Amino acid sequence: MKRRFSERFHDGREAFLRARRRSVPFRVLIPNIVTLLGLCVGLTSIRMALEGRFEHALIAIGVAAVLDGVDGRMARLLKASSRFGAELDSLSDFVCFGVAPAVVLYLWGFTEAASLGWIIVLIFAVSAALRLARFNVALDEPKKPSWEQAFFVGVPVPAGAILLLLPLYLEGLGLPKDWLVLPLLSIYAVVIAALMASRLRTFSGKLAGQRITPDYIAPVAALGVVIVATLATYPYLSVTLGCIAYLSLIPMSVKRYEEAKDRYMTIEPPNPQQRASQAPHMSTGQDTKTSQ
Fold it and tell me: Is residue 175 part of a domain?
């Protein structure tokens, strides 16, 4: 017995809707394509380092950092944010800014140290992985106050990668490679790794993207042009000064965070449930295992 036309129409419409729900708009793929492009550039930096072309390796990591900053903003602009994109971005960041800089630094300055040098760069790569894992966990936490968006927990992985390669920038400025002895290079790499894995608050710059008044449009645009021109003309000097400025701002960012936290706690004290959870209590052995 043939089905009625209305039933066939209904079944066809349901099949069409199911297929449409499975399809993904192309605009959703654009940020992921940019992320994959940055991943390819980061992997290319490893090849450049293996071939001894460290200048090209630095450029590749810098381009990967730019693409990493573009894909997230592009996803928000196109309303294409997704958990898949966030996870892909984290994996790309680990390769581009955790593995690639470690390999570049090892091939540049730790080859004579052999196993010791490899342990140092492993510490950096593991710290980058821990920093990214903590960031992914924070995505599932309740929404934080707006003032906390101005701070990162620890140094971001892309910034840590750029800071790690500071000795290469100094060599590009003309300083001989022999001035940086192995113990000093090892201590510097471990310090950068510790800053990434730490819970120190650093400026995020997220609030800098908010609207500005018309009076500041021209100065901000001029400043952007100056920064780009300086990077293009004096790349090593610009990045070196940027690294030094960033490291010198960390104590200030920690102080600003504590001041903002005190103001927030004064205006909005924790509710009774939060106070009860923060109060000291007797813990059992099971509680201790859970907290660890």
Answer: yes
- 136 in Cβ contact with 83 (< 8 Å): no
Q: How many domains does the chain have?
A: 1
Cα gap 32→38, rounded to integer Å: 10
Evaluate whether residue 228 is within a structural domain. Answer: yes
Query: Whole-model pTM?
Result: 0.77
pLDDT surpassing 60 at residue 21? no
Residue 203, φ and ψ in degrees, nearest 5: -60, 135
Find the CATH number of the domain harbouring 77.
1.20.120.1760
CA distance between the termini of the chain:
67
- Residue 201, H or E segment: strand 201-203
Domain, as residue range, for 28: 16-267
How many angstroms separate the CA atoms of 191 and 7, rounded? 69
- Would you say residue 25 lies in a domain? yes
Q: Which residue, among 29, 188, 6, has the nearest Cα to 109 in the 3D structure?
A: 188
Which pairs count as long-range contacts for 173-180, CB under 8 Å and 24+ apart, including other chains? 173/236, 173/237, 173/240, 177/109, 180/109
d(CA 66, CA 49): 20
HSE (side-chain half, CA atoms, 13 Å) at 280? 0
Beta bridge partners of 1: none
Q: What is the pLDDT of residue 227?
A: 83
Residue 157: name the closest of 82, 238, 98, 204 by CA: 98
CA dihedral 35, 38, 43, 47 (to 10 degrees): 160
| Distance from C-alpha of 280 to C-alpha of 267, rounded to nearest angstrom | 24
Chain segment 70-102, per-residue pLDDT in tens:
888 888 888 777 788 888 888 999 999 999 999
Specify if 286 maps to a domain.
no
